[in-house]
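Hi team,

Filling in the usual template for the complex we talked about on Friday. All components are listed, including any nucleic acid strands or ligand strings, so the model treats them as one assembly.

SUBMITTER: L.P.
PURPOSE: interface mapping
COMPONENTS: two
RESIDUES: 784
SEQUENCES:
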Amino acid sequence: MASKVFGGEVAIGVFAFQGERAAASDWSPVIRYLNKALPEHRFRLDQYDAEGLRRAIAGAQVDLVITNPGYYVTMEAEFGISRIATLDTEDSNPARALGSVVLARANQTDLRVLADLAGKRVAAVAPEAFGGYLVVAREMLGEGVDAESDLKELRFVGLPMKRIVEAVLRGEVDAGIVRACLPEQMAKQGQFRLEDFRVLSGRQDPDLPCALSTRLYPNWPLAVTRQTDSVLAKAVARALLAMPESDGMSWVVPADYQPVHDLFRELRIGPYAYLRENTPEGLIRRFWPWLVGLLAILTAWIIHTVRVEHQVHRRTAELRESLSARDQAEEKMRESQEQMEHLSRLSVLGELSGNLAHELNQPLTTIGTYARTVLRRQESGDLTPEAVTEASTEIAREAERAGGIVQRIRHFARKRLATREPVSLAEIAEEARRLIVGMLARAPEVVIESHLAANCKVLADGAQIQQVFLNLLKNAIDANRDLPVERQNLRIVIEPLDNRVAVHVIDHGVGLNAEQFPRLFEPFFTTKPDGLGLGLPICKTIIEAHGGRLWAEPNQDAPGMCFSFSLPCHELSA
Amino acid sequence: MNYQPEACIVHVVDDDPGLRRSLRFLLDSVGWTVQLHASAEEFLDVVVPPTQPCCLLLDIRMPSMSGLELQQVLRERGITLPILFMTGHADVSMAVQAMKSGAIDFIEKPFNDQKVLDAVAAAIRQSAEAVDETGRRRAAQAMLTQFSPREREVAHQVAQGLPNKQIATNLNISEKTVHIHRQHVMEKAGVSSAAELARLMLRANPAALD
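RESULT (copied from the run log):
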């Protein structure tokens, strides 16, 4: 519309607060000058409030825009308007021309810096006012006070700014935000004395010789829209830069508005309002440096994980290998332990073998006697049927008995796998006693005392436990062979011990000397000329494999030794 | 020597019932009377000094009282009977000890039946002799009790081979009185010579005739 009309009217949209009609006169020198400098155009000044100017720009109803730095940055982001000149007011640097001051009454000594405003009442111009609010809001945020949430009250009183100063003076608010240099102007006009006020977070700046609470920002820009004709834009820019100061205001090349962008970003408003949004897009825009970092970390983590996974895989394979090697070793060990156990059984058997002959002698003698007597009687003719019956019956019985002995030896000597079943210690002790007494020529008396309830059993391998009994009995008998008969007698005591069962094999012999005692359970240590030295170590292994303990001690008040072992009780119901 | 096998007792002491019974079966077959005992103690309960031929077949190794101990007890009680020990091959040292203590033989298990029978027969023979000897001594002693005190004095000196004259002097009696006593003694003892009387009196052992 307007842009198409070259040589026609040019609308200049000016940002003015609602109700601020005075703005027209403020910018009249520019209109006058442009109309004079570019006579082929007719420049017109249209005043808008924030929303009105936005709609005007959107609807291309304006060709040029004059606005404050804050609103400019917003429109620049939204509609791509582009500054072509920055206002240059008297005695100031255009790039550092705007600042704000926060005033409080001089007697409010508790207010020294902006941070002190937390929980106070503060007056400002409007939420979108640049010098009248935003500039100070940024500084407050820098000092840790969020103007929107940390104040007791944030009162927007609009323009003119004089109202703010008056509100402060009347004590309606604790502090007020106004454009820098305004207090000095008002004081000059005699409206109040500067001494009545104190400046919060006051600072000095050579570019702006006024009381100041904030950093400085560039002055108002004049901008073109995307629709503005470039020739017109160029002409206007040239004209403005050439505008003499004598005509009331002058313009310079456009300043850098980055400080304003920074302000908006920090306050998360205008173009940076998305920083407040929690939409994925907003979050991404807000946190992209973090996201990049996170992505980098994630990537590193994935690489690391893959690497670790690979290593774990490799190590697992290695571990599995070593585990199977260990299994094999254990298997081997178990085998050799079984072998050793078997060996020890055989060695006990070997030691007993002399006496096994004796054991077998009884039935063999009996059988032989019967058989020959039958022959003898037959010869002499007095072999009655009754005699044949008697002889045959006895021969069969004794043959069975001999077979039983052989069976027992074979059973004892056979290699076997470990089992666990409830067994009665008293029964095993009795069996062991029978075996050893049956095998020995001069077996001493072995008394078994069981103080256990009949139903008390241990979970064990009966044959292994029997072997322990045999070993302990055999050792005791061997050790005391040369003693008088009454001292050779042995006692087996079985009794409950806490929640276990203890077995004591007690002899009344000479015991062990100080050199022998500590080596008792050492493999291959033996006191017997033909001993293997494996009996006790194997007993110990067996008992420990059953969760028990094997130990030896001299008798308390009598000569001799006491070998004991304990086993966990399976069902101890006393 | 003159005895019937049935009158001879063979005692068997062994803790093994099968072996015991087999020995009875064997010894029965040749006619001995057999008595079985399961332990040394059981045998001691019934044993008395033998009045007829007998012997003891004794297991050297038994659970409570051993054969050797039984032998000891019998000796202490003055009961003499021939003991045959039965041993296993590992019991040689015990067998030697048994022999030293007066056993007459030992039989090793497993044994030959003939050897058992021979050993038993020998033991019975020895026992029979001992029993005969005991019987004769008892008879002689019984005979001595028939003498009056004076007759015993005369008999003692006759058995020592002294002439009547010497005896009369020793006893301070007449030679004729000695002669009468001497005739009574010979009649009561049933002997015809001084030598026979001497043997009889030695058998009864009146101080072995000094």
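MY TAKE: The CA atoms of residues 2 and 113 of chain B lie 25 Å apart. The mean pLDDT of chain B is 86.

Thanks, L.
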